[in-house]
């Protein structure tokens, strides 16, 4: 018991004590508005190196647990430890120097494959209802790699609100403590130490966050959790050891699944971020960031209790908990308005095809705008290209909100049908252009099309502006309108010619 307490305290102190050092070094280094090492979540850039503190507490706890447990470290556990450190390095590299989604995926697969080849792969799957085991042979390596890569990216995807990824990871470590009881002292001490390390991190990550874990921390935690479940599976019922974390992660799995379906329906890239996740919906409903986080904690705790039930029953009650999970999922989907059911399948199919076509067209225009941005000699030329872009998307009005004033374009002949306009504003941080606002006539554009186009338009301007700044080594300086609105039909004529 004393060893458990020591590991927990040491893990907490290492993480809690290291983060102020990281914050101070980040403050001294500055962190420009376009530095990926900093998250632009507010007026002050927030460092993304919280994962350094989490990984450091992990390494200290590993050494301490090996000493206190007096237990020979298995090669499977050693592979998981080294794989987690390697995954942390991959994430840190991406935090500092973006390496692209495909390269990251290849790196994750390579690391997971090495760990699986070291003996941590699933070889036998036990039916929890009959107790019969099934040897899956070489497919075990494939399943292991998919499992490790999936958990790695899952923790990273849910890291979209202060305290969420860290809190859910902490819950999973509590599950690992339960799974290690009576089987491995080292695993028990390691899990308790990580609970302490995550508590130290959450002290600074709870809303309003002062630091984020970044890709380094998210990759590390996801891979570590996946690896520990594999080690646990080899010491007990495989079905229970692997299914229990799935129950504990039911909320983020549901969120990610709906996101993939949502983006696929719209014709957007599967891994493209959006603001339609569960936590975004709660904020739209009027929840504060803190209340949103606590709500998600409550829901995650409910699923965690089901995970404990799976372990307690050695998997025999999986069908029961699957039914309960289904009911909770239905409640979440309908309560948060994540899926609309007011249309028939036929209507939905036609709308989906139309939306996908419009999405592809919008993304092609956005690519054109980004390429043209590097050829523009002045910010005014960039604005003219964006006006052409907005006109092609059939927007009625576009405004660039500047630090002082605004720059606006309105379609020629458009009067003042304020009640018929659909408006959407997207804010930027760390730029002379503080936001972009687009408007469209409700009679000419559906709500779904408008939401898609407005989001892509804001992203297109941001990417084009970033390219222009990189090409010209200067910030964008635009003179605000002297009038409230300025129509510029001649711009469209010139660009069309």
Number of strands: 8
Coarse shape? globular
Radius of gyration over all CA atoms, rounded = 25 Å
Strand residues, percent: 5-15%
Spatial ordering of strands, largest sheet: 6-5-8-7
Low-pLDDT windows of residues = 31-35, 484-497
Distance between the termini: 79 Å
Order of helices and strands: HEEHHHEEHHHHHHHHHHHEEEEHH
Structural class: alpha+beta
Helix percent band: 55-70%
Number of helices: 17
Total individual domains: 2
* Mean pLDDT over all positions: 78
Largest sheet: 4 strands, antiparallel
What does this entry look like structurally?
The protein is α+β, with helices and mostly antiparallel strands and 497 residues long. The protein folds into two domains: 2-249, no CATH class; 353-496, 2-Layer Sandwich (Beta-Lactamase). Helices cover 65% and strands 7% of the residues. It contains 17 helices and eight strands. It has helices spanning 2-29, 50-69, 75-96, 101-120, 139-157, 164-180, 185-205, 214-233, 238-248, 250-266, 278-284, 289-312, 318-335, 345-373, 379-392, 447-472, 489-496; strands spanning 38-39, 46-47, 124-126, 133-135, 397-402, 406-410, 421-427, 433-441. The strands form three sheets. A four-stranded antiparallel sheet has the order 6-5-8-7, covered by helices on one side. A two-stranded antiparallel ribbon has the order 1-2. A two-stranded antiparallel sheet has the order 3-4. Strand 1 (38-39) and strand 2 (46-47) form a beta hairpin. The longest helix has 29 residues, at 345-373.
